[in-house]
Design a protein that fits this description.
By secondary structure, the chain is an all-alpha fold. About 80% of the residues lie in helices and about 0% in strands. It has 8 helices and no strands. The longest helix has 28 residues. It starts with a helix and ends in a 9-residue tail after the last helix.
């Protein structure tokens, strides 16, 4: 099996069964150093996708005024805040998730979000009329998969605890991100560093 076939199988399985993929990923047991390297990789790829979006749609350039380096700091910190928020909030609600598991699943989730973003960009360029539908479908899948990831991570017996974890975590991330942006000088109006 070629690497492309292997990746294709994982992507298709991820779209159909995010909970099963989450269990499989958690059984691998990657070292924490490897996980931090993967955080750096998905952060850089995310910045590249944002910059591509600005290049393809100059109107977005007015909204996104930060430098690529600042974007990397913001996105990397956001990913780590998401990991901490989901892990700690889930533990408060009786979950058993560990930091390394949360880190791995958030990396995988962000990687899938990048793939969805590539599909959305291609759809926008090739079939603009379908771009809205693809965007909504991608967003729905991201929410669906995140709930299943949190459910598997913490060993919850239903998705309602996972939903509560995500909602409380998003509130925490919002405060943390607002603090980070104010510390590095990025304003809500799109100011620069």
């Amino acid at each position: 099996m070629t690497p492309a076939q292997w990746a294709g199988q994982w992507i298709l399985r991820s779209l159909r069964d995010p909970a099963g993929v989450a269990r499989a990923l958690m059984s691998i047991g990657l070292a924490r150093n490897t996980l931090y390297q993967l955080v750096a990789l998905v952060t850089v790829l995310s910045v590249l996708m944002l910059e591509l979006g600005v290049y393809l749609s100059p109107a977005e350039a007015e909204v996104l005024m930060a430098t690529p380096f600042a974007l990397a700091i913001i996105l990397g910190a956001s990913l780590l805040m998401m990991v901490f928020a989901l892990q700690l909030t889930g533990r408060m609600l009786g979950g058993t998730g560990r930091f390394s598991g949360a880190l791995l699943l958030v990396i995988w989730w962000q990687g899938m979000a990048l793939l969805i973003q590539v599909v959305q960009t291609a759809t926008l360029l090739l079939f603009p009329a379908l771009a809205g539908i693809v965007t909504l479908a991608g967003l729905a899948w991201l929410v669906f998969s995140l709930l299943h990831l949190v459910n598997v991570l913490h060993g919850f017996d239903n998705l309602f605890k996972a939903l509560a974890t995500v909602v409380i975590g998003v509130v925490g991330i919002s405060f943390g991100l607002a603090l980070l942006l104010s510390l590095i000088g990025v304003t809500l109006q799109g100011g620069t560093l």
